[in-house]
Amino acid sequence: MFRWLTGILLAVISTAALAAVKGEEVQYQAGDVVLKGYLAYDDAIKGKRPGILVVHEWWGHNNYARMRARTLAELGYTALAVDMYGDGKTADHPDTAKQFMSEVAQNLPLMKARFKAARKLLAKHKTVDNDRLGAIGYCFGGAVVLNMARTGEKLAGVVSFHGSLGTSEPARYGKVKAQVLVLNGADDQFVTAEQIEAFKKEMENAGAKYRFINYPGAKHSFTNPDADVYGPKFNMPLA
C-alpha cells in the first residue's frame, strides 16, 4: 500500500548518484499574487515520471526546499519547490516566519489556491505524468500537504515531515484520496500526544490509508541540518 510513499521517503533521505539535473526558476500566479518556485528534473531521463510538490518550512521558499527538490530530481522525479508566501519571500527570524505562516495557515481557501496553482504548473511540465503526482512538506509545509489530502486534492500520496497535525476542517469520510505518511519526532515539543491521537482518530474516521511513524529522540525540524543553527540562535527546541 505504501510502496509509492516509501519511494519518496527513501529519495529524500538518500544520497543520489550523479544525474543531469536541470533547475528552472518558475513563476506562476494565484489570484493577484505572483509566486516564485524552483523546478528540478533529470534531463537525461527519457519519458514522463512522477511529479512531487515540495512545500517549504515556515521560513519560506529557501535553499533547503530547493535542495530537497534537487534530491528528488536526482532520483528520477520531477520536483517543484513551491512558494506559499508569494514573491519567493523568506524569513530570517521566527517572528517574521510566524507572521508569514499565519497569513496562509489561517486561510484555508488561500492555501488551497496557492497549492493548486503550483500543482497545475507541475502537472503541465513536459516530463511529468500527471496521473502520478504527490506532495511532501516540512514543518508548515507538512501541515499544508495534510490539509490538501483532507480536502480531497488529487494526489497519489503525501508525506509530512515534522508537520503540524491540527486543522480547522477535519477530513470527512471518503474524502481523503491520497495515501498519507506522517513522519514525526517523538520529542517534538510542537506536537503533543493529544494532537497525535486526535489526528489518528481523524484519519481512521475518514477511512484514510495512512501511516504514522514516531522517531524516538527526534525533535522538531529533524530533517533540516540548519536546525542545529536555528535552535541555539533563537532558543527553539529543534533537532
Automatic annotation (TrEMBL):
Keywords, alphabetical: Hydrolase, Signal
Boundaries of every Dienelactone hydrolase domain copy: 36-230
One family name in Pfam for this protein: DLH
Signal peptide positions on this chain: 1-19
InterPro entries: AB_hydrolase_fold, Dienelactn_hydro, FrsA_esterase
Keyword Isomerase among UniProt keywords: no
GO molecular function, one term: hydrolase activity
Database matches in PANTHER family: DIENELACTONE HYDROLASE DOMAIN-CONTAINING PROTEIN, DIENELACTONE HYDROLASE DOMAIN-CONTAINING PROTEIN-RELATED
Identification of the protein by name: Dienelactone hydrolase
Species the sequence originates in: Candidatus Muproteobacteria bacterium RBG_16_64_10
